[in-house]
Amino acid sequence: MVQLTRIYTKSGDKGKTGLGNDERVYKNSARIEAIGEVDETNAAVGWALEFCAGNLKNLLLRIQNDLFDVGADLCVPEPAETSTTHRLTVTSAQVDYLEHQIDELNARLSPLTSFVLPGGSKASAALHLARTVSRRAERGIVTLSLAEKLNPEIMRYLNRLSDLLFVMARFVNTEEGQGDVLWVPGANR
User: Fold this and answer.
1) From 95, 152, 170, 188, which residue has the greatest number of CB atoms within 10 Å?
2) Phi, psi at 107, each rounded to 5°
3) How do residues 112-124 score in pLDDT, each as one tens digit?
């Protein structure tokens, strides 16, 4: 269990921070950028949580916990193949869970006839915002994966997460009687 007794350490005052393996890296490294984007995703999910209830709220709480797992996985670079280091990693079961939730919610929605505009209800708008932040985090993970070896489940998890947040946003609008807000191409010419 994590125990924080001091919030500031002054160890980052020169622009570096520590990874989970005690390596020091610059705060603008691709790895720290990716960790920060996952953290932003978690904050956006927390904001969306404020507008959701019941099963959706429980699902978002589970996602927040999983996002900490993603951050923990990212904060310790992949060890050498012969390493015996035990580290927390995102698993395919976590990705499978998101896929199951997508399928469950999407089965209750009508097929799309146009692109969906973010909005409709407060909950839907907040879920769409979380979706776009998670897409940015996914792009950061792709950038990092081009330079360093990563657990492939991280990228899969973030990809499914943005899909789930999209479906949840549609679901909330449907449940609240709002329906999808559809894009009308060229409507304001």
Assistant:
1) 170
2) -65, -20
3) 889 999 999 999 9
